[in-house]
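To: structure subgroup
Subject: Chain for Friday's discussion

All,

I'm putting the inputs and outputs inline so they're searchable in the archive.
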Amino acid sequence: MSHCTKFDFSYTSEDAIVKAFRKMNVKCSTEMVCDFSSDFAKQILGRLGYAGSKQYRAIVGEIEGGHIFVCRVEQDKYELFVEHHQDYNPNEDKIIADQFRNAYIEVAVDKVLRKLDLNATRYEVNKQPNGMIVNFGPNLEYTLSVLSENDQIVEDVKGVKGDFCTKLTEDIEDVLSQPTSELKTEWKQEVEMQVDEEVLQVLSLSF
């Protein structure tokens, strides 16, 4: 039952956010941060003890010339902000945001890789500019692709028969999407095929 599923990308897991910082070799801490209407208000009013218009719990990482803030805006929903303290290339914020997003996607895919490791299943990982592609199986005949496109995740499973393909991606969807997110799925021809591969049968019991 191979499939292609699309859903809106979201930062949902504080644990995964911390691990994403570690993958970028960025030290982080949990802090309360404040929202100010301008840099002037932040510099002047902040020093006077004014807490801004809103306060957020945030995981904060220090980068060269600035910070990455991942702020909790709702229960289990976080937003990413990049702040610089000096002149910088206007495209730099997007580059850093993309790097963090990819690290976060990698944390989600790691959950699948750990289960493949526990079953001594062969796999190869190919990092992409916008995500990851994992080939696995005795002859690397099965494929799991997790890529971001226009604030959505495109999750593609190829070659896998039976309902294992949905079990394969549950952990990823749990980390990368909100519980209320709509998952748009297209099923492939493998949905009609009988599961006869021993590897898939064994893996299915472990996921």
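Points worth raising on Friday:
The chain is about 30% helix and 35% strand.
Strands lie at 3-8, 28-35, 54-63, 66-74, 77-84, 123-128, 131-136, 142-149, 152-158, 184-187.

D.
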